[in-house]
Design a protein that fits this description.
This protein is an alpha+beta fold. It contains 4 helices and 6 strands. It is 44% helix and 24% strand. The chain has a 4-stranded mixed beta sheet with strand order 1-2-4-3, with helices on one face. The chain has a two-stranded antiparallel ribbon with strand order 5-6. Strand 1 and strand 2 form a beta hairpin.
């Protein structure tokens, strides 16, 4: 795991629907101007740590990771309409973020 992945507490990869998605993280990662983007054909989630020269907080990067992971879930479930519903995706990502960060073992 890279130092950035540890610092931001996001994984380097995960598998969903038989596809392994890599999580790319960096200051100058190509995200088409967003904080994060999912590239389905490349099986990649790309996350920026800076936007417009400003560092993003750990929680901003983590929330973006869970938002992008929600896009992957909808793609795997073949839910194109839900996948293009950004408020739904954002809410699903927020719920997943909160559950995963507060689970007790």
């Amino acid at each position: 795991m890279s130092n950035l992945h540890k610092e931001y507490a996001v994984p380097t990869s995960f598998t969903a629907g038989g596809h392994t998605f890599k999580i790319l993280l960096g200051k100058d990662i190509d995200t088409d101007g967003a904080i994060g983007i999912t590239k389905f054909l490349q099986c990649e989630i790309r996350l920026r740590t800076h936007l417009d020269g400003e560092a993003l907080s750990v929680s901003q990067v983590q929330q973006t990771y869970f938002h992008e992971k929600a896009h992957v879930m909808m793609m795997i479930l073949n839910q194109d309409e839900l996948n293009s519903n950004e408020p739904f995706i954002d809410n699903l990502g927020q719920i997943d973020f909160q559950i995963s960060r507060t689970e007790k073992y």
